[in-house]
Amino acid sequence: MKIYENFFKRFIDFCLSFVGFIVLSPLLLVLSIIGAIAMKGNPFFCQSRPGKNEKVFKLIKFRTMSNAKDKNGNLLPDDVRLNGYGRFLRSTSLDELPSLINIVCGDLALVGPRPQLVRDMVFMTSTQRKRHSVRPGLTGLAQVNGRNNITWEQKFEYDLCYIEKITLLEDLRIIFKTFEKVVKRADIVREGTVSDMDFGDWLLSKNEVIKEEYDKKQEEAREILRKG
């Protein structure tokens, strides 16, 4: 009986993201040019993320941090590389616009569990990893219920709640709620929240994993990325 989830959801995602990409192409072009100047190079940022059935794909976003390095060739701290333009992109969520390409290609859905890092995925329980049974989303239930200001456990609970019953009405509600939060720039600030840390780092800080298990999981993540 999952007619919307299995048939219409992907069709709607493709149509809306394709039209959105065409309509927003002038803005994408302008931001690409400004980004190339502000970041002194490639304005795009691609990062491997686990998608449906944990198949790794490249998530495309606008770069919000420069590649500035110290005299030894090491990247400077994040807060130094995050310039004013990058903060503007994050606060307005404009850095997410290139991800429309991921939706057109079928890596992402408009609505679904937000794709986390591979190094976060390997620390999830088998239950939490059920979130990967559907396409990840550009936005999701967790994003309209706290976004960056909720705990890791709350994020996963919202993700699992969403996949239990995927409906058109729920997707529309999440999309409209997302627009509202973007306009209000709500739940943007990350500093001081537990979900600002990698999931594995947070578990280690809470003594919920030992150092040996932590190192083993990190190697598992690197192996997945090498294969991906």
Major sheet details? 2 strands, antiparallel
- Uncertain segments are 189-194
Q: Class by helix and strand content?
A: mainly alpha
Number of helices: 10
Percent of residues in helices comes to 40-55%
Mean pLDDT: 91
Integer tally of domains: 1
The order of strands across the largest sheet is 1-2
Provide an overview of this structure.
This protein has 228 residues and is mainly alpha-helical. The protein has one domain. The chain contains ten helices and four strands. A two-stranded antiparallel ribbon has the order 1-2. The chain has a two-stranded parallel ribbon with strand order 3-4. The longest helix has 21 residues. The chain starts with a helix and ends with a helix. About 3% of the residues have low confidence.
Overview features:
228 residues, mainly alpha, two-stranded antiparallel sheet, two-stranded parallel ribbon, 4 strands
Strand-helix topology:
Layout: H1 3-23, H2 25-38, E1 44-50, E2 56-62, H3 78-81, H4 84-92, H5 100-105, E3 109-111, H6 118-121, E4 137-139, H7 152-164, H8 168-184, H9 199-205, H10 211-227
Parallel strand pairs: 3-4
Antiparallel strand pairs: 1-2
